[in-house]
Amino acid sequence: MEMKPLGRTGIMVTDLCLGTMTFGTQTSEADAHTQMDMALEAGINFVDTAEMYPVNPISKETVGRTEEILGNWNAANPSRRGNYVLATKHSGAGFAHARDGAWISGETIPEAIEGSLRRLQTDCIDLYQFHWPNRGSYMFRQNWNYSPSGHNTNEVLDNMQDCLEALQAQVDKGNIRTFGLSNESAWGTAQWLRIAEQMGAPRVASVQNEYSLLCRHFDTDMAELSVHEDVGLMAFSPLGAGFLTGKYQGGAVPEGSRMSQNAEMGGRKSDRVFDAVTAYLAIAERHGLDPVHMALAWCRTRPFMMSSIFGATTVAQLEHILAGKDLRLADGIVAEIGQAHRAHPMPY
Question: What is the rounded CA–CA span in Å between residue 130 and residue 109?
Answer without folding.
Answer: 10
